[in-house]
Amino acid sequence: LHDGTFTGAEIQTRWGPVKVQIVVRGSKLTDVQEVEAPGSHERSVEINDQAAPILRDEALRAQNASLDLVSGATITWDGYRQSLQAALDSARR
Amino acid sequence: MTSPATHQIRRVEQVMGTAFGITVAPPVGAVDNDGTVEDDLDETFAWLRWVDRTFSTYRDDSEISRIDQGSLAIDGASPEVREVLVRCAELADLTDGWFTARPRGDGPAPLDPSGLVKGWSIDRAGMMLRMAGHTSFAINGGGDIVCGAPISRPDGWRVGIRHPTERDAVAAVLVVDGVAIATSGTYERGAHLWGRNGTGCRTDLASVTVVGPDLGTADALATAVFVEGSGAPTWFDRFPDYDRLVITGSGRVRWTSGLDDLLAARS
């Protein structure tokens, strides 16, 4: 991975569009942030507030967007994973 | 246009104190324009929330709490509650007591079948999806997984087994379809595992993953193998359809031969 900040593709989910940004330092993924997150209605906000930190934690943990699922960790939100994959692909170029 | 074979619908919701994610592919040719897949997901999550309300040890008004308080007789409980308690007793026998529905040692042990309930409820959720016509799906409830046929890859779902100590790594990758996978360890959600007879867990293991046909059983076995601590208890032979992958405290990964063909090289 190249160092820098990379933004993934916008992925449509049930709750609205999701887009993540990753930070790579020393060839390691050091942060994942959702630059666009579903929040258009109350339920989305509730789901998103709860799922985003969990997903962020797992994205850092797995550091491998080619996985579909992770056992032993909390659940990923696949929309984030898709956007994360795109961001990682940018970082690999 | 997304091709029907890879079209998938995903949803994640918070249930049982963790995140549950369900991915389904509508049957080929039945692209979900009328919302029926969403209806199926609504029903599946409604089931999981019902299980949470009914079995929670954190709610005084759950059936499990009321049974424990003596205000509800087991005979008067829901059929699902009775089924789970019967299965807990069977699994306690089959694991020589290493799995138990009364895990805590301090004082009278409260009834806590959660070591089986989450996996069991995900098995049922998978059955609901199958009955609704979905053969391609995956359910991940806080790291415990039931999957049907794969969606985006022909060879199977790529399932990472979380590395217990390296936060940003997976220890192994399994490529699977049509199986259940449960992992137990103390690295997640604090030390929630207790040994036999309520003793503190003195395991040298970092995590135990069990793979097999039924997630309730896999979930219970993962916990039992973890707290037993040797990594290779003889009673595991009573479960010939199940395999295990054990990560020791020093980071060694060991598995039973049934997983040989499912383990992928790490990408």
Short précis:
Chain A is of the alpha+beta class and 93 residues long. Helices cover 39% and strands 31% of the residues of chain A.
Work out the radius of gyration of chain A: 13 Å
- Quaternary state, please? heterodimer
- Strand residue content of chain A: 25-35%
- Percent in helix of chain B: 25-40%
Q: Shape of chain B, please? A: globular
User: What do the pLDDT scores of chain A average to?
Assistant: 61
Largest beta-sheet characterization of chain A = 4 strands, antiparallel
Nearest-integer average pLDDT of chain B: 83
Which features does this protein show?
heterodimer; A: 93 residues; four-stranded antiparallel β-sheet; globular; B: 267 residues; eight-stranded antiparallel β-sheet; three-stranded antiparallel β-sheet; 11 strands; disordered N terminus
Structural summary, described in words:
The complex is a heterodimer of chains A (93) and B (267). With 93 residues, chain A is α+β, with helices and mostly antiparallel strands. Chain A is built from two helices and five strands; from the N terminus they run ββββαβα. In chain A, strands 1, 2, 3 and 4 form a four-stranded antiparallel sheet that branches. The radius of gyration of chain A is 13 Å and the shape is globular. In chain B, the strands form two sheets. Chain B has an eight-stranded antiparallel sheet. In chain B, strands 5-6-11 form a three-stranded antiparallel sheet, with no helix packed on it. Chain B is globular and about 50 Å long. The model of chain B is unreliable at 1-5 and 188-199 (pLDDT under 50). The chains are: A alpha+beta (93), B alpha+beta (267). The interface between A and B is large, with 28 and 45 residues. Strand 5 (69-71) of chain A pairs parallel with strand 5 (157-162) of chain B, so a sheet runs across the interface.
